[in-house]
Amino acid sequence: MTSPEPINGEHHIAHHLIRSARIVGEDGEESDAATVYCPLQERSTAVAECESCRRFHALHFDATARTTSVVCHAGPATPVEEGADPMRGVGGPLDPETPLVDIMTKGVICVRPDVTIDAIAALLVGHEISGVPVVDAESRPVGMVSRADVLRATQERGDTEESRRVTLQPDEIAPLDIGQGFHVYEPIKTTARDIMTPVVLQLHESASVRQAASLMAYEGVHRLAVTSDDGKLVGILSSLDVLRWFGRSCGFLIPPPARKRS
Ligand code: SF4
Predict the structure, then answer these.
(1) Which domain holds residue 44?
(2) CATH code of the domain in which 37 resides
(3) Is the pTM of this model over 0.85?
(4) Fewer CB atoms near the end CB (10 Å): N or C, the chain?
(5) 133 Cα: distance to centroid of ligand 1 (angstroms)
(6) How confident is the model at residue 55 (pLDDT cuts 50, 70, 90)?
(7) Among 53-57, 89-93, 116-120, 222-226, which is the least confidently predicted range?
């Protein structure tokens, strides 16, 4: 990849990691929202917006780390580019003020509240993850579903799903050809809304690892939602992300999460 042409004589370039939130809807339909944190605007922005920005140079895929970033003119040098701490995140000294945007899990799988527990169980197994955030229509986190929540709900449900008696109105067509004296029962689907923890602990992406670790330890949770200025989910911070950051900051070579993990 060639270096971008300088803008106003500035030659600083920066790589901004792309974060993606894959949202699974009730009907199994999936949509992706790809964003980066733009230090110039000090907010998250859609990758599509970057592509029309005059500072944009290219998208860069790192095959080793399996990450994609936006390469652009950084403009006024950021603290990292000024050389304040060039080793930050790659074996530099522990900096408890490291922002979450640098260490959070950036590829997140989310579900809408109406997704069934069977679909969630398939996601947890298929992607080898221990939980999924639940987001509303604006991609704002409204709950969390953990593997334990799914197991508990499945155990309580037993082999058969709960059902409810349906009274057909005279002008409705029966789904089955039922005889006189019989009733129609339809299964009640347990959804994310029924089993999620409806309180989401969240921090802004510019919050520090110091704040996040304190909050997780105080609340006894392993997962925090990371949100942008408009409250949209842009990442998840797990206790494992904090440990990875700690290990790397101590100089150890910690591989990125396996491809399937979110
Ligand atoms: S391309 Fe433009 S909008 Fe995107 S991160 Fe760079 S400066 Fe910000």
Answers:
(1) 13-153+193-249
(2) 3.10.580.10
(3) no
(4) N
(5) 27
(6) confident
(7) 89-93
